[in-house]
Each structure stands twice: as C-alpha cells, then as structure tokens.
C-alpha cells in the first residue's frame, strides 16, 4: 500500500485551475521526483497535501487514512512535513531555537537537536540567527526544521533553487542520508532536471495542473508530451 | 404598523444619505492607505462647532466658509500627522485615537461638555409624505446627501483621479505607473472627505444638536459602513449606508433607541469575523 | 532562587517601600498599582502574542460587574463575590475573545476588539441591562474596600505574584512557542502545533489578572460604572500607560502606571481634568514616537550603569 495517495485532487484559485485532478501514489522508502514548468502546480500540490489549502475536489490519503480535512499540525503529527519554496523563519531567533521548536512542540528528547544539526551540517552555526545563512545554509535549516518533527515522509519544494551544482550535490547527499538513516520517504521538487535525475528513483511530470507522465528519466524524455511541455 | 414601515423606509434613506457622506472620507482613506483614521469623526464634531460659532456672523453663508475650512483642516491633518507614518497602520490607529480624545478634551475646555448647542435650519416647515411628518430641513439634507453620493460615484467612475482612488487599493503600483502621486491623491480624498463631513455635520448636528461627545456615535457608523460595504468602494458605501440607515431607524422605532449602537456594532463585528472583505470591496488588514 | 523570583521579590519590596513612604497619599499608590495590574495584564497578551487587544477591558468589566451584581443585588459577602466575579469575568471574556483571535488577526482583530467594547458599553447602559446594571448610575453603593496601607501592599503582592507567573510562563516551553507564533503562525503550525492554543493560554492568564483586578477595583471605587470598567477612555488610558512605561517589558507597565498616576497627582491642583488628560495623552504620544520601548528602556540604561554586567530587565 502506498504511503501517500493523492486521489484526483483539484484546486482552483481565482482565475486559475492550479490543480486539475492530480493522482499520485508514493511507496514507502521511495525518493520520488516531481518536475514541471513554472506555474505547473507543483507548489500548490505540496501545500494542498500539507493542508495549507483545502482541495476543491478529490482526497488525500496518508498511510491508509483520509487526511484531506485535517489541520496542518495534525498532518505534521501523523508524520508528514515539507520545506516550502520561500524559507519560513524568524530572523531574531537563533537557528538552535528553530530546530528546538518542533522538538519542544512534540515532546521529543532534547538530544534530537544535535542529531539533526549534524545530519544537515549546521552544528557550527547553532547560535547564529538565520539571516546570516547562505542559500545552502537556508535550505539546510528548512530541512532541519522539517526533520525536527520526526516525519516519515517529507516533501522538498524548490529543493535546489538558487544553489550551484556542487551545493545541489551536497543537498542530495543529505537527502540520501536521511532517506537511509531515518527510513524516510521523500518527494523532491525542482526545476533542475540534472539534479533531480541524480536523486530520484521515479519522477512524475506535471503541467498545467495535471500529471502528464511518470517514470525514470530515460522513459520520460522519450515521451513527446514531456518534451513539448519543456520546450513549448 | 404601515406608517411605521413607511417611516422607517423614509427616515432610513435620509439618514443613510447623511451617514454616507460622513463616511466617504473615512472609507476611501482606509481603502487607499489601509489604515483607520479615528480623528475624522472628531473633526466632524469640530465642524459642527464651527457652524454653531460662525452662523451668528455669517448666517446663510456659513457653510461656504465652514465646508472648505474643514476640508483644509483635514488636508492639514493628513500632511502633518498621517503622511509621515502612513505605512504603519498601528501607529496611525494609536495616534488618531489619542488625537481624537485630545480634540474632545480640548473642545470640552471651551464648550461645556454637558450642553447641547443648536444649529439654525435653512428651512423650517414640515412636509407630509404618506402620513409621515418630516422636517423640510431634514429632507433637504437627505436630498443633498444623495446628490453628493451619486455625484461622487459618477466622478469616481468617469475621471482619472476618481478611477485612481478606486484603483489604488487593488494595485498601488499600477497607479504609480500611470503617473499618479499617492500622497496627492490621499490629500485630495482628505479634502473632499472634510467638505462632506462639514455637510454631514450641518444636517446631522441641526437635527440632533451639537455637543463635544457627538463624534463617538458617528465613529460607530463610519466603521460599520466601511466594514459592511468593503474598503475603497463608493458602491459599497451606498449599499452599506442604506442597510445601516434602515437597521438603525428600525431598531429605534420597533425595539429601543438606546440599543442602536449595540445592534449596529454587532453587524460590523459579524461582518469583520465572517466576511472580512465586506459586501463589495477588499479585505481589511 | 531563580532570577525571576529575585527580581519580582525586589519589585515587591520596592512597591511596599513606596506605599509606606507615601502612606499619606495612599490612594494614589493604590490607584497606580491598579493601573499597573491592568496595563501589565494587557501588555502580557498584546506584546507577546502579537494581537493588539483593544478589548482588554472586557475582562475588567465582566469581573467588576459580576462581583458588583452579586454583592449589590444578591447581597453576597464581598470576598465571595470578588472571587466568583474574577473567575466568571475571566471565563466570559475568554470565551468571547478566544474564538475571535482564532478567526481574525491583524487590523481586523484590533477592530473587532475595539468595536466590542463600544458595543458592550452601549449594552450595559441600555434599557435591557438596566435592571441588572443600573445604566448610567451604575451599581452603587457596594461593600467597599478602604484605602489602607495593608490593601496597598496586598494588591502590590497580587501584581508581583502575577508578574512572577507571567515571567515563568514566558520562559517556559509555551513561552518559547509563543515567541514563534507572534512572528509567524505558520512556523508553529508546520512544527506540529496549533498556535492559537498557546496564544489562547496567554489570553487566559492575561484575563485572569485583569478580571481579578476589575473585581477588586469596583469595590475599591465603591461603584461599578462604565467609566471604571468597559469604557473606551478607560481602555485607552491603560494602553497609554503600558506604552509610556514600555510595552515589551512587564516591569514597564509598573513604571508607566506610577508615572502617569503621579503626574496626574502633581497636575491635579494646577489644571482641570480635561487638560490633565490632554497632557497625559500628549505625553503618551510623544513617548511613543521618541522611545518606542518606553520609559523602562531609559531606566534600564540607568540600572546597567549602576549595576555593571547586569543583563537587560525582562
Ligand atoms: N495562493 C494563490 N492564489 C492564487 N493563485 C495561485 C496561488 N498559488 C498559486 N497560484 C497559481 O496557481 C498556479 C500554480 O502555481 P504553483 O503551484 O506555484 O506552480 P509551480 O510551483 O509549479 O511553479 C499558478 O498559475 C499560480 O499563479
Ligand atoms: Mg513552485
């Protein structure tokens, strides 16, 4: 049974059909890629799965349970979390406090803080404020915050945006590590096909709010629809 | 019963027009700047006292002085107090509450706070519409108010500046691109709002009397019309003011005059909680 | 002993000394302490939750009127009516404001809370409530509390007890979560918690002190009337005091209350009450612009000069 099942989810914003019936199944332990041109609906899909928006139609199932009407925080407590395309942090509060937040809220042991910091490689900057971080550091903090709630499934939106290729590879290392050590299922979303290709087992392509293809990169780019979506 | 219903309809429409012109400045300023200017109702009270004080000397020409005078006062208020902090709605809110209470204290120093002053009417007879007696002066006020509102609606839809006032809340940048200066537009809105406040003060104060406390209830009315109608919309003001006018007169006629502010505020609170964008406008805050 | 307990014990000693020193004018000391109670409970919620609450007097009024009604109409003994009034006032205020703060934030919350107190004032004065509230005349006479040194010290103790409790709350886990919720509710949501659960607790604690203060205050004043409970002017006075003192510090409210009450004390023989208000509002206005962190920030600098190495108050 898939960990996450998105069943025919639709979401309309004033004047835009952001999602036009998306169906997506992700298996335990998978690292899934999600690509698509700008405005395809990738971020909307993630925020809808997280519960920032209610879907207008369809339903979302997590580990066999319909979570479509749950609050964000209840979804987080069920083991779902995500990083968002614009980093969410409070400039006046230290990096340590950001990582502590999820641990405190959920009553996890304080030892988690250092474990997470080491996993993402922020242990040297714990008492700094987040706005001193580089683009890579900011991504690491986003991932650390998501990990602080001990998720079993995380979605990483715009995972490599603003990073150089080498920095992207560093994020990929982190993804591989958490997928392995924490048995995490991961959904990686980005424009950078070369990087997504390196980390994802299977990749889904969406365009204008619908899934147009799914498979390995080799399969995808022999598919004319995908090529059109990216060229046109 | 029938006379009562007719009474509510007619008086509701008359007060709606007065409340409408009193609210124009408050609502458009809020739509443009995203802040509430609590000092405006206090200037409404100041305008009423200007009329009381000047009419012995100026007679029927009083309004020709007071209306532009209050307009200028409001523009000066904007340039002096609001413009420097117009990007911070909280500061404006605080500053104008303090200013309003300060103005009340100051006026109470000069005019006895327990006393109600009178404004001499232009017309003194009554007319009878469907068996409802109405003072000619009040009917005149209603007519003037509605003419002003429809005129304003026409201007706002058919002139550049008018379209800019309505357009800015949707897109501040768009208006700047077509070369309009936001500060100047706001100053103009304050000026027009001040003139209309003076007109409102003349008819409202003429009917109910003038006192230093007379700004609090209009503040309630301005808030309610602004939140019910939605920000920065003349159509919204016109719809909301009729609703509020009828609701108020109905409460006064059928229930209890002393509970009118409570009922009207409950409407505003309910709209803020359940439909923050109002009936025809954009969301507050 | 923790740093918080030392500070609040020191504050209590200082307030007691002030009461003893000014015992000839003890009513001013008591008045200042009451306003410190109201301002501190206001800024505890407003400054730390990020919701600007202009409906704080709902707690004061609900506590005050409940106690007054029990004492005036039902002849319940004053101590009992004060205790019941405090609890009922806290609950009524919280049951009204808590759902609203969940639903609207920012300027909308400010508006709703502001409009609510005007509406409540109107309701209390209306014909419907008159049998219960006596309208403009208010409920008077009530069993009174006298201006004694003992009472002054007693409410100073109440103030410092809550000040200590508030400080502890702010440094607890809940307080740390509130630090995030104030800046971004989404960050708390994605950490797995409903931010309003924590801001709601803040509101409850804020209301408990305000409502207790309100119940005591009507008996101390001898009457429950709108001007010492629900009225807008009363609310504004509380806000001005908190701002003058410094609303980002619990101690700021105490400084502000003493400053304003004693400024009024000095001005009273010289000017009329309208001018006194004008001066105090003007002062609030000026301080808000010059030192957004209030008088406490000036005091802090002075303290740091005298006690080197000491970290900032609060
Ligand atoms: N909150 C919103 N309100 C209105 N429209 C939105 C909102 N979020 C996204 N959209 C629109 O939905 C479409 C999909 O956007 P998004 O999900 O951000 O795409 P992607 O992440 O794939 O670039 C776009 O047309 C975008 O303009
Ligand atoms: Mg996106």
Overall description:
The complex is a heterotrimer of chains A (232), B (285) and C (314). Chain A has helices at residues 42-50, 72-77, 95-106, 112-120, 135-147, 165-181, 193-199, 217-220, 224-231, and strands spanning 4-13, 16-26, 31-35, 57-62, 65-66, 80-83, 153-156, 185-189, 202-207, 210-215. By secondary structure, chain A is α/β, with parallel strands linked by helices. Chain A has one domain (29-40, 79-231): Rossmann fold. In chain A, the strands form two sheets. Chain A has a six-stranded mixed beta sheet, with helices on both faces. A four-stranded antiparallel beta sheet of chain A has the order 2-1-4-5, covered by helices on one side. The longest helix of chain A has 17 residues, at 165-181. Chain A is globular. In chain B, helix 1 (2-33) runs antiparallel to helix 10 (234-255), helix 2 (39-58) runs parallel beside helix 4 and helix 5 runs antiparallel to helix 8 (182-208). By secondary structure, chain B is an all-alpha fold. Chain B has a single domain (2-274), classed as ABC transporter involved in vitamin B12 uptake, BtuC (Orthogonal Bundle), CATH 1.10.3470. Chain B is globular. By secondary structure, chain C is mainly α. Chain C has one domain (3-231). Chains in contact: A-C, B-C. The B-C interface holds B 34-36, 89-91, 93-95, 97-99, 101-102, 105-106, 108-109, 113, 216, 220, 223, 227, 256, 258-262, 265-266, 268-269, 272-273, 276, 284-285 and C 52, 100, 103-112, 115-116, 118-120, 122-123, 125-128, 232-233, 236, 239-240, 243, 272, 274-275, 277-278, 281-282, 284-285, 288. The complex binds adenosine-5'-diphosphate and magnesium ion. Adenosine-5'-diphosphate binds next to strand 2 and helix 1 of chain A.
Name a few traits of the molecule.
heterotrimer, B: 285 residues, mainly alpha, ABC transporter involved in vitamin B12 uptake, BtuC, two-stranded antiparallel sheet, 11 helices, 2 strands, 74% helix, C: 314 residues, 14 helices, 0% strand, globular, disordered C terminus, binds adenosine-5'-diphosphate, binds magnesium ion
What is the element layout, followed by pairings?
The complex is a heterotrimer of chains A (232), B (285) and C (314).
Chain A lengths: L3 E10 L2 E11 L4 E5 L6 H9 L6 E6 L2 E2 L5 H6 L2 E4 L11 H12 L5 H9 L14 H13 L5 E4 L8 H17 L3 E5 L3 H7 L2 E6 L2 E6 L1 H4 L3 H8 L1
Parallel strand pairs in A: 3-8, 3-9, 6-7, 7-8
Antiparallel strand pairs in A: 1-2, 1-4, 4-5, 9-10
Chain B lengths: L1 H32 L5 H20 L3 H21 L6 H22 L15 E4 L2 E4 H23 L1 H8 L4 H6 L4 H27 L7 H14 L4 H22 L4 H15 L11
Antiparallel strand pairs in B: 1-2
Helix pairs in contact in B: 1-5, 1-8, 1-9, 1-10, 2-3, 2-4, 2-8, 3-8, 5-6, 5-8, 9-10, 9-11, 10-11
Chain C lengths: L2 H19 L4 H24 L7 H16 L5 H26 L2 H20 L4 H4 L15 H23 L1 H11 L1 H5 L5 H27 L10 H14 L4 H18 L5 H18 L4 H12 L8
Helix pairs in contact in C: 1-7, 2-7, 2-10, 2-11, 2-12, 3-4, 3-10, 4-10, 7-8, 8-10, 11-12, 11-13
Bound molecules: adenosine-5'-diphosphate and magnesium ion.
